[in-house]
């Protein structure tokens, strides 16, 4: 059960829920659970069953594929107002998770039980469109990721990652390595090489892009 303020915030961030009849909405939210999860926490892990559908109200999380040796491949972020496509897929297919979700910034969320998600998906076209829209976007992102991992060298992928963000970039070398599915030492060496060529300026947990044109030229090779 969630309170009136949380209900109002949920409807503000996920306005399609307002298309439901008031009685149906109240019934669904009565079965929902309000949660807070701190940064660095884990939302779900590989091979776990899906216990519900998260509606993010604040914070952010990222979904990764982890290897037995500890290396990680970043798949996508989940932000307020979005749908986690892996959760949607697991609920629709009644399957376990095949990846891991880590909290990046403190999360505030409402979790709908599986039965409530299926009611929404079956009966509310705007919610169904929302979920399918996220599937389309994430599939496109993942195809780009597969292409980059298969056909691009790490220095090209790093250059591309730097040019898609606003400078200065507040990030650790480890965070970039996790996102690229590499090792911190390798990313640090590449960043130092970029800095030696005058393309970036490095600081403590800070990267300033100095020559975006050169980085884009490398990324497009």
- Rg is 20 Å
Overall average pLDDT: 90
Query: Given the helix and strand composition, which structural class is it?
Result: alpha+beta
- How many E-type strands? 7
Could you say which overall geometry the principal axes of the C-alpha atoms support?
A: elongated
Helix content: 40-55%
Strand-residue fraction?
15-25%
| Gap between N and C termini | 54 Å
The largest β sheet comes out as: 5 strands, antiparallel
Number of helices: 9
Oligomer: single chain
Element string (H = helix, E = strand) = HHEEEEHEHHHHHEEH
Low-confidence stretches: none
Describe the structure.
With 221 residues, the chain is of the alpha+beta class. It has nine helices and seven strands; from the N terminus they run H-H-E-E-E-E-H-E-H-H-H-H-H-E-E-H. Strands 1, 2, 3, 4 and 5 form a five-stranded antiparallel beta sheet that branches. A hairpin with a 2-residue loop joins strand 6 and strand 7. The longest helix is centred in the middle third of the chain and has 27 residues, at 125-151.
């Amino acid at each position: 059960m969630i309170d009136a303020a949380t209900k109002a915030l949920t409807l503000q961030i996920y306005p399609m829920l307002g298309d439901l009849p008031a009685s149906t909405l109240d019934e669904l939210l009565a079965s929902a659970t309000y949660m807070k999860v701190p940064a660095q926490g884990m939302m779900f892990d590989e091979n776990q069953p899906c216990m519900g559908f998260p509606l993010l109200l604040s914070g952010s999380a990222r979904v990764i594929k982890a290897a037995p040796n500890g290396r990680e491949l970043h798949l996508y972020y989940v932000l307020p107002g979005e749908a986690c496509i892996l959760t949607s897929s697991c609920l629709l297919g009644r399957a376990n998770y095949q990846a891991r979700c880590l909290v990046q910034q403190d999360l505030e969320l409402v979790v709908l039980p599986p039965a409530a998600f299926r009611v929404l998906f079956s009966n509310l076209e705007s919610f169904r469109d929302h979920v399918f829209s996220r599937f389309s976007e994430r599939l496109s992102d993942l195809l780009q990721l597969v292409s980059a991992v298969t056909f691009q060298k790490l220095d090209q992928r790093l250059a591309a990652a730097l040019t898609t963000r606003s400078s200065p970039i507040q990030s650790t070398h480890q965070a970039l390595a996790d996102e690229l599915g590499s090792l911190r030492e390798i990313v640090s060496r590449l960043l130092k090489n970029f800095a030696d060529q005058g393309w970036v300026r490095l600081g403590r947990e800070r990267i300033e892009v100095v020559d975006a044109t050169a980085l884009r030229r490398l990324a497009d090779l």
